[in-house]
Structures are given as structure tokens and as C-alpha cells.
Amino acid sequence: MSRRAPILALVAVTAIWGYTFVPVQEALAVYPLFAFLAVRFAISTVALAPFAWGSLRGLPRRGWAAGLGAGALLAAAYGLQTAGLELTTVTSTGFITGLYVVFTPLIALAAFRTPVPAPVWVGVVLSLAGLLLLSGAPGGSWAGNALVLGNAVAQSLQIVAMERFAPRYDARALTFLQMSVAFAGFAVVAVAAGQVEAPPDAKTWYALVVTGVFAGALGYLVATWVQSRTTAARAALVFTLEAPFAALFGVLLLSERLGWAGWTGCAVMLTGIVLAEPAAASVLRRLVPVRS
Questions:
Q1: Euclidean distance between CA atoms 273 and 20, whole angstroms
Q2: Less packed terminus of the chain by CB within 10 Å, N or C?
Q3: Do 57 and 106 form a contact (C-beta atoms < 8 A)?
Q4: % helix / strand / coil in the chain, to the nearest 5?
Q5: Could you tell me which of 243, 248, 274 has the C-alpha nearest to residue 94?
Q6: What is the pLDDT of residues 152-180, one digit of tens each?
Q7: Quick check: 123 and 275 in contact, CB under 8 A?
Q8: DSSP for 70-93?
């Protein structure tokens, strides 16, 4: 298999994640948030079940613990980000969430002594600079920002956990367990919040299917497979592409304006990933004609 395949697959996943901001924004205008998350992860769980059933039966006890633990971190990340977004600004949420690109290599280094090459740190710095240009300076509520910061830490822990466990256990089983835990957690929250109702229209169902099947089941399955072949630090760098993809689809589909700072931020983030990830640099060299 080509060394470029995992990085290209991960970029495709971040593009899907970035696109889903558009239909999700429209759906949440008419459908309660935790009901949406519960149904979304229910769809992910059902979509993965036929493919994961066989591998689940052969999964050892430690594999179950790894999948359930990673699922709890994933659900915590979504929950903290959502709670924080209600108290702070979208700008702050976007930038602070992106701090997982810093936390991930630090946690991997501290927990598992995973070495972080100098080019990756260069990519981390450039990604942070790009996020700042794209999202703007953080502001808003301290309480909201603290919750979003907790989301960034939870995301980092989930990425590091996948670096550790994805090479050991079947990707289908691990992804299914993560989706199941997230579904169970958000279903409990939705019931407690009184948000038990059916999706109201076709647009909402479209958003649920896109996020449940493609961003959820397929997206995290691919991400788990890729993380069995790369480090947590490099995966976190590529994951930050979700932000510029979200901005790009906002411009294309919602007529939003990005401005010179936003476009510069996207370019800076892409530069950081190309410098830090050899496979990305190899792809770029193939796409850009060489002048003699």
C-alpha cells in the first residue's frame, strides 16, 4: 500500500467533517442539540453493526476496555464543546478546540514517550498561527472557554488512545464501540433534558444521515485505520484541516466571507502540514509540475 494512502484518506475525512458544519447548522435551527447527537450516533452504531459484529466476538477484554474508554473520551469532547459553545463565541470555540494540535504530542510524549520530530513541532506552530488567523483572537466567556478547553484535552486523549490501541485491535470493533458509547451517553442526556422527539423534516434527516454514516461511522473508521499507521501528533495535525474545510464550505454553500486573514490562515495551516508530514509533501510534489 502506498505511504500516501493514509494521509489522503485522513484529508478526505476532514473534508467530510468540515462539510457537515453546513447541514448541521441548518438542522440545529429546528431540532434540539442533544436529540440530534443521540440520533446521529445511533445511526453510526447501526451502520457499523453488520461489519463489526464478527470482530467484536473475537475482541479481547482489553480491546473492549480500549474501545469503551475511547468512546467515553469522544462523547466527553462533543459534550464539552457543545456546552462551551452555548456560553462563549464561535470564534473562541474554533480556536480553542484547535489547541488539541498542541496537547496531543505533549500527552503522547508524557504518556507513552512517543518521540515528536522537529518538523512536526514546526507544523504545530504553523497550525496554531493559521487557526488564529482563521478564527480570530479568543474572547467570550471564561466559563465557556474553559469547557471548550476541556473538549480540546478530551480530543487529544482520544487521539493518543487511538495511536496506542488502533494497531492492536480491529478498527471496526474499536469504531463501533466508540459510536455506541457516544450514542448511549447522548441518549441519556437527551432524555434528561427532555429532548426526545423525532426529526421534523427532510433537511434534518439529511444532516443526521450525512453525519451518522459518513462523518461518524465511515469517518471514524477511516481515522482509526489511519491512526494504526501514523503517530498521534501527525494525525492531530491533519485533523486541524477540518477548520479550513469548514470555512471553505461556508464560503461556497452559505455565502459567508472569509477575508484575507482567513485565507492566509488556511494557507499557513496547509504549509505546516506539508512541512511536518512527509506523505503530504510527496503528494504536493507530484501535483506541482517541476520546472527544469
A1: 22
A2: C
A3: no
A4: 80, 0, 20
A5: 243
A6: 899 999 999 998 999 999 999 999 999 99
A7: yes
A8: HHHHHHHHHHHHHHHHTTS-HHHH
What pTM did the predictor assign?
Answer: 0.83
Output the nine-digit C-alpha cell for 101.
Answer: 494540535
C-alpha–C-alpha distance, residues 222 and 226, integer Å: 6
Helix (H) / strand (E) containing 212: none
pLDDT of residue 137: 60
Number of neighbours of residue 117 by Cβ within 10 angstroms: 14
106 CB burial (10 A radius; 0-12, 13-18, 19+): middle
What's the rounded Cα separation, in Å, for the pair 242 and 193? Answer: 29
pLDDT, position 290: 44
Residue with cell 440530534: 36
The reported pLDDT for the residue numbered 284 is: 45
How many CB atoms are closer than 10 A to CB 274? 18
Percent of the chain at pLDDT above 90? Answer: 43
| Placement of cell 474545510 in the chain | 245
Whether 255 and 196 have beta carbons less than 8 Å apart is answered as no
**pLDDT > 60? residue 31:** yes
**Separation CA 249–CA 272 (nearest Å):** 21
Longest dimension (CA), the chain: 66
CB-based contact 233:104 (threshold 8 Å): yes
How many Cβ atoms are within 10 Å of 83's Cβ, its own excluded?
17
